[in-house]
Structures are given as structure tokens and as C-alpha cells.
Amino acid sequence: MPATIVVGTQWGDEGKGKFTDLIAKEMSMVVRYQGGHNAGHTLVVDGESFALQLVPSGVLYDHIVPVIGNGVVVDPVVLLAEMDKLQAKGVDCARLKVSGNAHVIFPYHQELDRLIERHLGKNKLGTTKRGIGPTYADKAARVGIRIQDMLDPKIFREKLHVAVAEKNLVLAKVYNRLGFDADELADRYLNEVMPRLRPHVSDTVGLVHEALEAQQHVLFEGAQATFLDIDHGTYPYVTSSNPVAGGACVGAGVGPMAINRVVGIAKAYVTRVGSGPFPTELFDEIGDKICEIGREYGTNTGRRRRCGWFDIPMMRQAVRLNSLSELAITKLDILDTFDEIKACVAYDVNGTRVDHLPYHQSDFHAAVPIYETFPGWNCDLSGVREAKDLPAPAHRYLEFLQEQVGVPISLVGIGPGRDQFVHFSKP
What we know:
Elements: E1 3-8, H1 16-23, E2 29-32, E3 41-45, E4 48-52, E5 65-68, E6 73-74, H2 76-88, E7 97-99, E8 103-104, H3 107-120, H4 132-140, H5 153-173, H6 182-197, E9 201-202, H7 204-213, E10 218-221, H8 247-252, E11 261-267, E12 270-272, H9 285-293, E13 306-308, E14 310-311, H10 312-322, E15 326-330, E16 340-349, E17 352-354, H11 361-366, E18 368-375, H12 392-405, E19 409-413, E20 421-423
Parallel strand pairs: 1-10, 1-11, 2-5, 2-10, 5-7, 6-8, 7-9, 11-15, 14-16, 15-19
Antiparallel strand pairs: 3-4, 12-13, 16-17, 16-18, 19-20
Helix pairs in contact: 3-4, 5-6
């Protein structure tokens, strides 16, 4: 059963969409297994940009069945709008399948997300305010509404009335806000949303297993990244699901024995959006330069990303958490004009050298990076297509990262285009 997981290994925005697109031609199915439309990625094909939020990257290939798994939380209105934009660009979305077990994001989830973040004040988490967290909270509390509920209007109305009554009480008593009309919401989703979504709703667990049993290649695509994982990330500055590779098993309905390849995606440096610790963050002109050259602004929100040097102890932890079989490094070309390149090899935590990711959050907040410095290459990598043609300093930098993290670097991205990459080492 040839199955591959693609997972982000930092704090997101590593370029998972591009890598997924690169290897998708080998696949028959691409499955998104967690997250929601809080995580966007941009693909550039023949000079045209495609900004995707919910639709799996494989939609750009005619032979691939794109699947939104049960672990994803779905705003159907956003999904349909994204499909319309893709259709307008000539991308066929008829093949898209959506799990009936995926939970639905409603307007009251988004309103609560905004209010909760605002009331946290200086302790805000930096959420995208898209309703992701409140929807996962309802799922865990067993009061969520799933896509399949909309297939039965009676059940849907009953569940929505119960949910809206409880949410309206919270909005009024806690936040002094007006609530929502359950009947109005029900009419909108049943009459406007569901007729268009219905042809895509499916038993995606069955579809995935049929593909695996037929020895078709299936790619599982995560959103966000390892250190935004609700269990293994820098809690509470995390997402509300499990982006780590193990999340694919739960979020798509497959067992771990079905997986035979796990590819970690990492930038040649590190970025982060929102609040939370970031030991290698740069607050100087170098950080500003990385941000501007790399266009480090959120696909969905436009928020400026925090930028810093590559963090090796963090990457070693990502290798462990995901059982990575290989690594793909993206955006190496962003460092083309730097005289020096740095990589964090350890931390100084209150006077003690620490070579691993600190377990305790206070230690991680106090961690000061210990750097190894490399000469820059000061040349344009965008036209390189063979590893042997990389300048020696770039080659050495990649070799050092590979040696330190303990897994081979299979691919290196040197530009936004679909063909702008080199094969570096065999996994």
C-alpha cells in the first residue's frame, strides 16, 4: 500500500503545497487530513498563482482525486467560493470528495473566535479568527455538526437549534453580543450550500482504502506544521488539531502500517505567524530582508511573518515526532544575497548548553540560540536544476543540515515555479 505523508516541520508556511504538487504526478489521490481554511498555500504553475485554502493541492492534476478527510473542519461557504475561483481558472473541481464526517464551521464559531481572541488581550494566541478552534472544541465536546448532518434536513435543523441556543446564551451573557437565528442559518445551508456540496460528499475512508488496496499511490497532506500541533507544539500558541504525521491516520481513517514514506518540509530558514516562542527570531535588518525577499506574508491573512535562522534542535525533534524518512528544503534561493548564513545548533538555557528542544516551556522561552556560521554564495540559484551545479557554499550548508538532523534532504526548492527545484540526496 504505497502511501506518503507530507508534513510541515516548523511553524507552518514551509511550502508543503509546492512539494505536494511536485510529487502529485505520481499519485492517484491527495488527502487533506486536518486543519481548516486557516492554512493557505500558493502554487505557481506556468507563471499563474493558485492560492488554496481547503482544496488539496492535487486538484491541479486531472488524474488525481482530491479528498478532504474527516479530520478537517470545513466552512462550506469558503470551500464553494474556492472551487468557483479554481473553476474560473480552468481547474476542474468535479473530482473533489469531502468526508461526511468532517465537522462544519458556522458563523457563530467565527464570531466566538474573534471575541475570545479580543478578550485575551496581550495574551492573545494569534489565531486567524476563522472559527477553527471553536469548531474543534464543539467536536471534542460532542456537540458539533458534521457535513453528513446536512443530508438529513430534520436532523440538521434539530442539531443546529440546540447549538445556536447554547452559543447565543454565551454571546449574550459573556460577550454582550447579539446571537444568530437558527432557522435562518438552516435555510441558508440547506437551500444554498448543500445542493452544490452534495455531489462531493462521500465515504472518504472507503475511497482511501479502495485506492490503497488497488496499489494506487495516496498522498496525505497536512496543514500547519509540527510545532503548531496541539499536543507537541508550543502550546498554547498552536492550532487545534494534530498536523504531525500520526494525525493522518486519525484524520483520514488509515492505520500506521499503511504509511511507507513520511516527507518533512522545511524552509532554509524559519518563519512563524502569531504569538509564541521563537529562539532564532531576527529583530534586525537581516530579519526584515528575509521577510521582504521571501514575501513572508500570510496567504490568507496578509500578516507579516516573523523570520529567523534555521533551528536544528527543533528539526531533530520534528524528525522524531513524525518518523521522517526524508526532508525537503524550500526557499533556499531567498538566501542568495546574504554574505553569511547561520544555523542554530544548540541553545544556551540559563547558562547551560542544551542540544535538544527543551521539554519545559519556560526553558524554551529562555533559550538563546548557539549558531554555526556559513559563508553565503552570493549568486542566483533560480536557474539551477542539478545538485552538482549548486555553488559550493550552498552545497555545504545543505550537507551540514542533513548531517545534523539525521535524514537525507531529497529535494531543494530554489524558486516559486513548479520546475524550480533540484534533487539533492536519495532517501
